[in-house]
Amino acid sequence: LPPSSAANLRPGAEQKVVFITARVHPGETPSSFVCQGIIDFLVSHHPIAKVLRDHLVFKIAPMLNPDGVYLGNYRCSLMGFDLNRHWANPSPWAHPTLHGVKQLIIDMYNNPKINLEFYIDIHAHSTMMNGFMYGNIFEDEERFQRQAVFPKLLCQNAEDFSYSSTSFNRDAVKAGTGRRFLGGLLNDTSYCYTLEVSFYSYVLSGPASAVPYTEEAYMKLGRNVARTFLDYYRLNSLVERPLGTTPKTR
Length: 250
Known about the structure:
Shape: globular
Number of domains: 1
Number of strands: 8
Radius of gyration: 18 Å
Distance between the termini: 24 Å
Protein name: CBPC6 carboxypeptidase
GO molecular function: metallocarboxypeptidase activity; zinc ion binding
Cofactor: Zn(2+)
């Protein structure tokens, strides 16, 4: 890609940051394909991707558990830790990737020139179908309602994403996850989600027949996640329209 002239990358400019992580659980391979779809789309020449790059900064850690993936573990790291339960106090020695990512997020949070607006952690689910999200529960009703906006928009863009399966919780067993910990750390203009996608299939509206997921279908969900930021930030009018008709991202 040519060097960016985006205003949000100029020295001293205020940045809106979307932070995405994936593969904290090594066996959840679909999360890598979804993340690959996000990355491929964002660095492409698609007119929507260009608008997103001009207005947002995307920070992506595509593999939080590389040693676990290398060893073929299902859930834990080299040392036997479920990293997604150690966000509250990660050790630089025992959980180095988590420690590094958390420190980066805290540094951005403390930077007055950076607005960390989204954190999305991508997982795969072994029993449920479709893509869906987990969000947090807040005492502030307005904040709770605003949190539902992004998954509702994603549901409009991705036929395999289910808003009815999306839920908001604060289960004690999830307290050490990225979504729960950062949801309590960041301010009320930040939204933290777990994005789940089925290991095996999705059900479209209409006849309840399951459609098996493929690598391409996972990557398409990733592309639609990226596309949804255009709707969320109301940037649609800035997309350059070619003379011919353009097929929708979906």
